[in-house]
Fold these 2 entries.
Entry 1:
Amino acid sequence: MFPRPIEQAPTATRWLYRVAVPVALFLWLLPLLGVAVTSVRPASDLAQGNYFGMPSSIAFSNYREVFANSPMASYMLNSFKVTIPTVIGALALSCMTGFALAIYNFRSNLLVFFMFVAGNFVPFQILMVPVRDLTLSLDMYNTWYGLALFHIAFQTGFCTLFMRNFIKALPFELIEAARVEGVSEVRIFWHVVLPLMRPAIAALSVLIFTFIWNDFFWATVLSNSPESQPITAGLSSLNGQWIAQWHLVSAGSILAALPPVAMFFLMQRHFIAGLTLGAVK
Amino acid sequence: MTGVSLDNVVKKFGPIAVIHGIDLRIEDGEFCVFVGPSGCGKSTLLRMVAGLEKTTAGKIHIGARDVTDIDPAERGVAMVFQTYALYPHMTVAENMGFGLRMNGHPKDVIRSKVAEASRILKLDNYLDRKPKALSGGQRQRVAIGRAIVRGPEVFLFDEPLSNLDAELRVDMRIEIARLHKEIGATMIYVTHDQVEAMTLADKIVVLRAGRIEQVGTPMQLYADPDNRFVAGFIGSPSMNFLDGVVDGGKVRIPALGGGPVDTGVALPPDGHKVVVGLRPQHLAVAPGPSDIVLDIRERLGGVSYDYLDTPQGERLIVETRDDAVIDEGTPVVVTFDATQALFFDVDTERRLR
Amino acid sequence: MTGVSLDNVVKKFGPIAVIHGIDLRIEDGEFCVFVGPSGCGKSTLLRMVAGLEKTTAGKIHIGARDVTDIDPAERGVAMVFQTYALYPHMTVAENMGFGLRMNGHPKDVIRSKVAEASRILKLDNYLDRKPKALSGGQRQRVAIGRAIVRGPEVFLFDEPLSNLDAELRVDMRIEIARLHKEIGATMIYVTHDQVEAMTLADKIVVLRAGRIEQVGTPMQLYADPDNRFVAGFIGSPSMNFLDGVVDGGKVRIPALGGGPVDTGVALPPDGHKVVVGLRPQHLAVAPGPSDIVLDIRERLGGVSYDYLDTPQGERLIVETRDDAVIDEGTPVVVTFDATQALFFDVDTERRLR
Amino acid sequence: MTRAALPAASAEMPPRSRWRTHQRRLAPWLFLAPGLAMFAVYVVSPIFQSMWISLYDWDGLGEKVWIGAANYAELMDDDAFYTSLWNNVLWLVLYMLSVPAGLMMAIFLNQTIRGMRLYKSMFFFPFVISQVVVGLIFSWFYAPDFGLLYQLIEWLTGTGVAILADDRYVTYGIIAAGLWPQIAYVMILYLTGLNNVATDQIEAARLDGAKGWRMLWHVVLPQLRPATFIAVVVTVIGALRSFDLVSVMTDGGPYGSSRVLSFYMYEQALSEYGYRMGYGAAIAVVLFAIMMIFISGFIWKMWRDERER
Amino acid sequence: QDKRIVRYNADFDPAPLAAMEQVIADFEAANPEIEIQLNNFDHEGYKTAIRNFLTADAPDLANWYAGNRMAPFVTSGQFMDVSDVWEENGLEESLGSALASMTIDDKQWGVPYTYYQWGIYMNEDAYEAAGVEVPGVEDITWEEFVANCEAFEAAGIDCLTTGTKALWPGAGIFDYLNLRTNGYDFHMDLTSGEVPWTDERVRAVFDEWAKVQPYVTKNHAALEWQDAAALLVQGKAANYVMGNFAVAVFKEGGMTEENLGFMRFPEIATDIPRAEEAPTDTVHIPTAAQNPDDAKAFLAYLATAEAQNTINAAMGQLPINKDATVPDDPFLKAGFETLSTAEGGIAQFFDRDAPAEMAKMGMEGFQEFMVKPENLDRILDRLEKARTRIYQ
Ligand SMILES: Nc1ncnc2c1ncn2[C@@H]1O[C@H](COP(=O)(O)OP(=O)(O)OP(=O)(O)O)[C@@H](O)[C@H]1O
Ligand SMILES: Nc1ncnc2c1ncn2[C@@H]1O[C@H](COP(=O)(O)OP(=O)(O)OP(=O)(O)O)[C@@H](O)[C@H]1O
Ligand SMILES: [Mg+2]
Ligand SMILES: [Mg+2]
């Protein structure tokens, strides 16, 4: 283990470390803490210039106000509507592509694989105009499924990289054993490989959830009305309305951050596994 | 009739030939072991029989059927992998019944066959466990059970015990021997463990670089090897090989000094070289004036191994049944039982008979 | 004076004691081997000597220095790990020179020491390779080279050969023996391989659950074990243990039938049970009317092992020096050399002497 | 027990249909079809379409007019383009700071004390939350007059600096905001990397007398190479994709000084005053070309690894 | 029962939104078979969004602006010709003042419902604090204004505030300096690309601007216009060049008619007839509308004096319909007076009179100038280069 375990250090160092970690954490999260505190600061505090002191009272009403006076609820709902089908769709597609690329040795295998990988890195901007036109022409502009379809397609690239490598790491004998036993390829996929991919699926689903939930660019490009905008785009436009109303902006930010943070906390192990296995955003 | 026969089978990976035309007949019910150094093609050959590798040329028959181009599933073979290849998400019972289930056998048939196999393999208490919760030996038994359940005509084993520790390996070896006795099916078994090959096989096939060196019963190979490779490969510690010179119809062995030995085999003309093979247990040492020096004596209790250096720079191993102390570095006199010596041609390495 | 001495050393991981107060003296230049079952604390003890684990209580001296609380780098020890622990991004030469470089030795000193070590270990041709491009045995030699280069007073080996295949293991074992002869430093060596322990050690320390069971030369432990554990642990195949009953100052062994045997040791009173230990090579079998059945005979060429089942459900292994065929399932008569039998207390498992 | 108990030759012999004979050749394409189709429609073909569009003058509403390379010619003479390009370079270079910074934090946190898991997860937070939120948080942090940083600078130097209103600092300000989550990301990568560092090598090095920095440099870092590689890759991609923060924090301002290529492209193509699809596409193509350098490197390395297997 | 739906995309701030909802309610009361679904966007976002929804997901009604700002949508066929609505309802008569700005190719493309004056809003308390006499609506010259700025600086008050994060507030200052220095015709020539940006007359405008530049709120580039409004409210700034819609914000911030003052932008060149800025806000029917007939009915209603009264009273802006009444509000009265006496002409706004691309580049240039006046040459060269490209 590196660095040398702190338990082996002198007591003083140990105590210093125990203090240093929370202090560092506090500094590290200072901006976030500020926002969290502001989100429960009464508007009057801001008016009086009390931006960073102790709030004069705790105003959870800010949150109520956010929901009452803005389409925040609808934004959040839209985000879920885009995110959840995307997670399911991208996983379904990439389980299959990953399986095909990991198990079979056909000639263009690597070529197809690298195409998925490369596609995963391209700047969004090069896709923007054509994808927007396509979405328009399919009459899916401003719909959750228009966004979800694109995200599914794009994330399939990333997920394929991940899934393929994961399946490749499974013992190939499992597939051979099943083949010797006379199991058809489709059933091998369904009964042997898919159950073993559960950790990968869990890891990817959290990861994709966060990616899509946090997506701003495509939300801006493929939707523009509060009825269909997800929360990132919604928050950005609310920011245009809530000038100087930092307590509302903060409350909105906290609300927008909540689902991915909760997801991260609940599925932390999977999340990190996902990052480091696939390791690309 | 469920023997296996290979007719001039060839396997190429891309341009590289790995199996160079092998002919082999394995009888119905026979236990056939493939041995050979790493990379000689044992696994490849086995996988060709299983259908997991395409056969480049030649024919493979199982029983009377030509299976050369047939899917693994339809060959009536079952395979046990070195890594067990158990499905980690299924219980032991599900693992064993999986093949039958996928091929649409009714539930109760599956259940009874699994029960039967688990009885044979003493797995009854573990049927509901996942492989993770089993020891190495138990896992290996499940892998075998999975093979048994489908009632195949031919069992294929690829180094099934090499992942077990020494003690367990002995137990499982005995269990496989018993299994073969019990179900009597044809079995092909790949290993690089001497002891497994010697103790399990009805017939050993010694492979080397994709070619068969010799086929025979264990004792045939041990006592009567066809060539130097087989002689050196079978038996542990390996046979000592020394240079010899034909001298008046006898063979002189410069390293051991002493007079020429009678051979009773057809030797090349005088002055030609031969290779003399002597098993460690057919040699004996005693301290005495000599050019040969005891380098290291390894005393294991019941038996000692002496490593000797000859003046020619050759190295000899001698197995001794006592544990007397001889100091390392002592000159020793080596005696041997000339009737046990084998002789090989220097160039072709064929046995001289 | 660079022996190693341990005074009542204790190691706890959290609340769990793993080493329970061990006293041990290893002389200057001695080759000391730790053996014992897995998890008994061999590695832990070695790592405490290295300084990689803190010593919870007790004192460790290397030579005259108390090193109990000293940094590993300053103890004058070098360690060879089971996994080799080579730095994969450095060449062989860099790997070997790394320790010197870290301690600020000048470049040419490093170069000459590395050259010296690589000569001893025949690594000259590989100095510029990365470990990845080496075989297992070569890697192990580099690991040893890295230890040699630093010229330590004490070498520590933790199962250095267990990742090598059987053949290579024999070669490397002999090489280590030679190395010890050549540089004569104190060496502590952990293994669970019988043969390594028997052949390399000046002194074997048998550990069990964090305590020393017996210390002695290999032959002392083999011939004169203090207790049943040591007797069963040393020697391969292991000693057979059978129940015996004291009967008129002699011991009757029901499993083998036959009359009571004379022992020449202090036995408990009549009617008490004892455990009788018999090594496989001290038994002999012959077909004949008997309750004992030959289960399986494994014939390995020079030697055969017979696995016998007694009516009491005990299992005996007999080593036979011939390869005559006895059919499996035949009743056999077992004879043995009573003078070779050892006796142990049933409860304390101590040897009766 | 004889083999009679296990019915002989019960091995399955299903009929050999065409599918069964060819399934191993057809199966991969069946499995690939849906994913490949989606990917082709939404990712691959748009890349080529964009290249095509970049040769037109098009406002997204009316007719496209073929103008050949004129958009590129104009780019070569466009100050805003060079500003964006320069900012992209700044992003690339400064974003790289997240690699050493993430490493240092990972090393700092790679200990086991009570509650460490919780601490670590909290350190990850910035990475999990949306860049929009990060942008808002930092805008507020930088806000003139009352912003915490503004006040801090004012307290230190006497005059506050409105980071986001000053073309000298604005890009640095945004990059700093971007570094916050990026450092967290890199830290995660390194923490997992550190978890997998071979203990035996560390111990061997300890016996060899390596300590502290030298241990880090000679023994640990070489082992962290895969983590470093991935960290660099994601950082490069993150730097070149930087859109959200610029959009949320400054909208490219003041007077376009914080634009980056990805934002400029969007601005030209879709923003209030934009709608030059062809010109935007040309910028995207340039950005793509830059990214392609890195993508090729990555693919090349993957290909090498693949072959070594 | 099934109502006929009219979808209306708009970008109202809260107060006007309420007013428009009122107008819609009135309309629906009169036409019970029609339901208007108002879909409100944030103001800045709307300007981007309209492009998308016109082509993608067209509503039946959409807010926009008069003048050049609607030209791209007209020429690309996104807005519907509503000349018939004008004709049938005699709007040429009642909305006559806006006819020109609504006409392209002799057709009308939308209905205006409000306009508002720009000018300088003052915090009279700040004047007092700095010891400067509060000027009347038109009694101060540019020299005096600039001179006052020194007094404000001495008192630690920003003489002139603005928030240019969204760029357009800066254009208001430019427009006025330009109108006062060169006049209305020059403004129109410049925005339609007929005058080079490197022209001496343009430089003259910036020369004037340079005089107040040091006194403008320093961090304006990081501020939204509302942030700057807060500065005025708090008395940290004295003057603000803004449109009348800001009054609502000032009042919301706590100012009253007691301390909030209004004056016309001071005279600079004496020989030029006074021109003013008064952007007109409009409603249009997209070509792709699903229900244009009911949309037209609504437009006709929106053009009535009644509807314009309702909405402008709430917005605090001026109705276009000549029969409507100017709300009873001192600022609006002053504004109405100012506009109706502006013999020089009434401009829409820089970003409504100039084509979008030029507007964007120009406003960026203004912002840069306000931060770094020394860059003027570079800025003008850049704008000139853009002009030759954009207007070709
Ligand atoms: N898929 C493959 N592609 C190319 N060459 C292969 C492939 N599989 C095996 N080989 C080569 O074929 C030869 C035989 O391999 P095989 O696995 O049959 O050896 P083996 O006798 O089983 O060795 P071991 O005892 O190490 O298992 C080796 O040289 C190996 O490199
Ligand atoms: N870091 C540790 N924390 C807790 N317990 C440990 C740790 N290291 C070892 N142990 C425990 O100490 C005991 C001795 O372990 P050790 O590794 O010394 O055994 P060993 O004799 O080397 O076994 P093996 O032959 O398997 O290598 C084991 O029970 C092990 O579980
Ligand atoms: Mg093999
Ligand atoms: Mg150990």
Note: Residues B 13, 18, 36, 38-44, 192 surround adenosine-5'-triphosphate (ligand 1) (CB under 6 Å).
Entry 2:
Amino acid sequence: MTAPVVEMTGISISFPGVKALDGVDFRMFPGEVHSLMGENGAGKSTIIKALTGVYPIDSGSIVVDGATVSFSGPAAAQAAGIATVYQEVNLLPNLSVAENILLGREPRRFGSIDGRAMRRRAKQLLEGLNLDLDPGSLLGSHSLAVQQLVAIARAIDIDAKVLILDEPTSSLDADEVAELFRVIRSLRDSGVAILFVSHFLDQIYEITDRLTVLRNGRLVGEYLTEELLRIDLVQKMIGKELTALDEIGRRSHTAEAAAAAADDRPADFVRAESLGRKGAIEPFDLVVGEGEVIGLAGLLGSGRTELARLLGGIDRSDSGRLEITGAGTRLRTPRQAISRRIAYSSEDRRGEGIIDDLTVRDNIVLALQADRGWFRPIPKKRQEELAQSYIQALNIRPANADALVRNLSGGNQQKVLLARWLAIAPRLLILDEPTRGIDIGAKAEIQKLVYTLAENGMSVVFISAELEEVLRLSHRVAVLRDRRLVADIENDGLTVDALLALIADGSVADEQAPDAGQAPDATQAPDAGRPADAGVGRPAENPGSASDPTFETTGDRR
Amino acid sequence: MTSTLDRPSAGTPSGRGSRRSAGSAGSSTHGRSRSPFDRLRDVLTSPKSGPVLVTAVLFVAVFVAGGIRYRGFFSGQVFLNLFVDNSYLIVLAVGMTFVILTGGIDLSVGAVVALSTMIAASLLQSGWSPGVVIPLILVLTSVLGLLVGLMIHVFKVQPFIATLAAMFLARGLCYVISKDSISITEPTFVALAVTRIPLGGGLSITPSVVIALVVVAVAVWVLGFTRFGRTVYAIGGSEQSGMLMGLPVARTKVIVYVVSGFCSGLAGVLFSFYTLSGYPLTAIGTELDAIAAVVVGGTLLTGGYGFVLGSVLGVLVLGVIQTIITFEGTLSSWWTKIFIGALLLVFIILQKVLTARRR
Amino acid sequence: MNALLLRTVTSRLFWPVVMLLALVAINVIAFPGFLTITVKDGHLFGSVIDILRNGAPTLIIAVGMTLVIATRGIDLSVGAVAAISGAVACSILLGSSDPGSFGTVAVAVAVALLIALVLGVWNGFLVSVIGIQPIIATLILMTAGRGVAMLITEGQILTVDSAPFKALGSGFWFGLPVAVVIGAVIFALAALLTRRTALGMLIESVGINPEASRQAGVRARGLLFTVYTFCALSAGIAGLILTANQTAADANNTGLFIELDAILAVVIGGTSLAGGRYSLAGTLIGALVIQTLVTTVYTVGIPPIITMVFKAAVVTAVCLLQSPATNAAFARLRQRIAARHARVKEAAAS
Amino acid sequence: GGGDTTAGSSEGPKPVDELVVGFAQVGAESGWRTANTTDIQAAFKDAGIELKFSDAQQKQENQIKAIRSYIQQGVDVIAFSPVVETGWDAVLNEAKAAGIPVVLTDRAVDSQDDSLYVSFLGSDFVEEGKKAGDWVVEEYKDSTDPVKIIQLEGTTGAAPAIDRAEGFADVIAADDKFEVVASQTGDFTRAGGKQVTEALLKSNPDVDLIYAHNDDMALGAIEAIEAAGLTPGVDIKIVSVDAVKDGMQALADGKINFIVECSPLLGKQLVQIVEQINNGETPEKRIITEETTFDQEQAVAALPDRQY
Ligand SMILES: Nc1ncnc2c1ncn2[C@@H]1O[C@H](COP(=O)(O)OP(=O)(O)OP(=O)(O)O)[C@@H](O)[C@H]1O
Ligand SMILES: Nc1ncnc2c1ncn2[C@@H]1O[C@H](COP(=O)(O)OP(=O)(O)OP(=O)(O)O)[C@@H](O)[C@H]1O
Ligand SMILES: [Mg+2]
Ligand SMILES: [Mg+2]
């Protein structure tokens, strides 16, 4: 075996009150895809930041290419051949796509940046990821998913010997993931050492060669992927067996049964009639019944978020009408929506979700407090109760209501956000990518929660890039394409493939029947070793399925 | 890996196709055939160039309105005098633009201008040659900028406060040099002060204008076409992201204050051409003029968006407001202040309204 | 005990307090009677009392400024608002037949504060409804407002002769200067209003992430109105104290540059200009540091020509000491000392 | 440029109502300055001459801009109170080239070339300081004890502050019983005068006299002295400069002991100069305004018809 290109030994890092890493060893080999596994807050991102000099380490040593190093920051790490895409998109919304990709490495002519060459180069890179973007457009005008791809394009353009991707696929859909994996493989084959972090086990099993498992900042062990069963991996990550998922599987059966009995439709909670907003989403009709879960499906930029934002009162509609429990109304501000007990949890956790300099407690009570008005403060004791109950219910870590949210790991921040919305006891909960970046255990918990809430009468609009998740949870699925609602169907034996076909061209007819028989996954209870988040985010493994037209584009490259 | 869950890659050619267009959703809406009016509105409402264009349009409108109202207003020389009288402010605004683009602010510029005039006047008085004095000033003010930058970057002192301290220091040093105002009689300075560069048609500008325009040109190039310049914008977009992207954030952030210090020094030199004296109380509050010019020119104080040319326009706007007031000639001291405030308000509101985007 | 010490040292108020104590020490050395407080004519008298009284206007404005800054804003117009409020009060008093009566003064004060309130609403309107950047929105009032103040006084210094009005600035109440009492009341009011209700948390939330706050249903617009109005109101009150203190409205000079002092006080107190979490206690310390600094210049006899340099030195010192880099250096030092202690102990034990 | 006006002024007198005068004022930084502005505006109105007024907000550059603009507008006479003495050669040369005569008011310029302006009309700040010093020397001529003096300076760097300090220092230097124990700036304001005096009285409780560079600071000092339980004008004597109404009132009330006048009423004289120029006469190069001094009795007499 070749020598490791990165070798970290005995790394410890403490933050006030938390020991984020405790004597962890970690190494990477050239020509190998390695993954860090662990629950939210296990310390995965921290290891990456330690390696690249974002955080100074308290103890331990880092050896890169045989030499002990101590990088002063990402710039130094980059200079030493380590390219990194950090968790959460860290790009510049005020600059163009091309600049974001090439900033710091712009092609120059006579000392000036050569704008044309830069755009050309960026275009090439994006095309390498099969992404057709105007490189001159502002990054901020693109969705988070596109931004994530741009960040990846930036990293792979750096001629690096180590490529680090911290949850790069969290908001990508299957196509993008496939493209990304193609690129990863080709880089791997050219000898690059790649670190790929993801909470999607399928992706892990598909692409990685080696795993390092962390738990609570401690090393559990390093394994070869093919030698470690999923069930064992999960157990190593969470330290106990995962049981919650069985339950969900069962529930999805009952749910379907309920949905199948189409006659006793629940009372409508929200009814939108040709509600629309110019430039964002074409007028659409949508009904959400009480206790009903509506999944929104669509490709990147298909307008799911825009639709959800109208329902949540985040954006104002400019056409159509909205009825809430039968009464016509207009939602002009999120505030009005909240006072009608409609909660919208944004997909952009950092930009529109958490208040990062406030404590966990303040973040949890924020919406409730805002609804009550500032002169009717929630008593300290009640705040504490609320915070503690959600910290426990959602297993937020560290379990400290006084911790600043900015110091929580990404997944835990998401849980805090969810807690904020649950705290207002919403009647309609709109969740835009709520499970992004959340570990399998927590994801199962959130799914379970959505189920329970719906059974208790709460309506839910659920958006997720993972179609499996959408299918598992929803009574009905609304499909969007090109900012238009193209289908709204009962989730009655619907399959991922059928849904994909819908998403692709809006036709249900041909595809659904055969696929439904062929892939009963959405209804099948996954066993403990095949956790629920498995699914869409996997590129072609079994090329040759006749029903899969992408075979030509992705399958043959393997 | 043989479970039924293992399915070939999702997605279809048509799906891919639709994603393509959706992926570039931001631009695709722009790409469709649209009326010229729509396109105009797009340009005006773009966060990048909109405010600058609107400012330009408003400036022209005000200038024309002044020409209609006042005798002798609508002349080339009145327009050129905007540059002649404000060349130092243009240079200051250029330096300030760098700082503000990173999301910082520099309150010290007015005091540094005063300090520069004091250094120039006192050294020239004691017989130093301008060839030494001018570079010395530029070095000193750049070093002051460097110290401020280090204070901000290394010690994480907020720019507002670090530059406020620098303002106190520079103003204090003025008094230490001399409490009195000092005349500059040195021939080179005097020559530079009185020289007029004829442009034909009875129009003329001063060497200071040329210097200021060179500074502007260099700044446009640096900000738009060098890595340093793009890093300045990057820091304004998000310092954290810039750092994680491996950009030289630390260096750039410090250099930006050096640039501002240098520009303040240069502005001080131009100012001493303009006033031919050093005076410790001079240029009080000029930092606010510079900031206002930059903001009127469409640069966001939070950083990341804006152009040097916008700042130049901002200076011209402030200049034209002042010119209108002198041409009006009947405003009392207090109405002068109210009028300046009101015109500024009208400008900002129009800019806001014209660039307003739907939310 | 040790833990308490550590908490004290790492508190963000530590260095400002140290600086305050240092300034006091300098004064005591230069003028041993500095800390003496005597009772004269039934009220307290001494340098410390002067500092508190003269610092009251800055503190009052700084309290308002703290809340504005917490929302990521800034208010440059406070000086002008102070001048307007003083000018309004004085011109009312001068115009009345009986400026010395309590009623007249009450009317004058009420009208002045009402106008300050309106100006605050105006700032709030520009910032929250029109969406102008706060520094520019308030710069407009800073410029025009002084003009308005001068318009009211016609550029003259309006001297008033009214005992109840004068008391606002230099009177005493149970031995304490009225200005100090007013300052304390405003401070307490702000603290109660923001910390006992949810206002403080909502303000911080808007300051940290406006869009997220909006989506969480926080009425950002209303909050902005509230803080700018409160800030202008406190500026109005400070203006009355300043005016009463010199028994004259001076549209030019009342509150000139007080916005810088107030902002400086806020920042020395550890509140970030980037918005978010704020500390009123810090602002109090900051205001005291600034006023003590001014008094030090007089008592120690620092020549006017280097006053500015001295101020620069103090401000720089506070900021550098407060900085995370310095904190880290101190932490390392402490660690090293602790380690040495441990080693010494070990050696002793073995 | 203003070529046409050149012709106008050399051709002989214009009708008065066609004259245009541009006046660039320092600003409106004090009551004194406002009185000055008001007086000038009123005088020109009475004379029927059009006055273009601009306020430089205490900035030299604004004044230069204003003068340039007057040249551009082709006024007949430019008058201005320079913010600062230095640095006028360039713009005054432009005025000269355009043939527009310039009159300085209140403050002089230090230009070597005195052809750049026609006339200076104003006060002599050094002289004012001397007059104040003379009174002090006279007042304490019989005393042999040291005389402790606090000086309240004007804005650091401002010409009146520097000159008044200089004139005063020159005179009291004659006798070393005079000791300036503290000298601080009160920025020409009441608040400044009060705060400085307050603090200085604590550290120098045995002070005999306060010399204030203007009445406003003296008025502030009075408040501070009273707050310290002392009697202004008796326990601590006060000398100041300006003679604005409030100051004169305090003088009449016995709270100030002596005031040196610095008159802002330059309007009439300025109109005269303009008319002289228009008639082709040459006004005197340096016209010092008639200024007097007031002691307490004179103040009582002068107070009723004090205009500002
Ligand atoms: N700057 C910080 N200050 C304080 N604590 C921090 C900081 N950064 C991370 N932590 C803590 O360190 C621990 C590890 O966080 P890390 O971000 O590495 O988790 P992770 O494994 O990447 O989780 P996720 O899957 O949610 O991204 C968490 O408990 C987190 O709260
Ligand atoms: N007014 C606008 N101006 C420019 N771009 C916009 C505007 N509104 C939306 N967009 C962009 O258009 C795209 C629409 O994507 P949107 O988020 O609605 O789709 P989605 O189906 O939710 O996709 P995702 O899976 O990325 O969440 C995004 O890139 C969004 O940023
Ligand atoms: Mg992470
Ligand atoms: Mg979305």
Note: Residues 31-47 of chain D form the longest helix (17 residues).
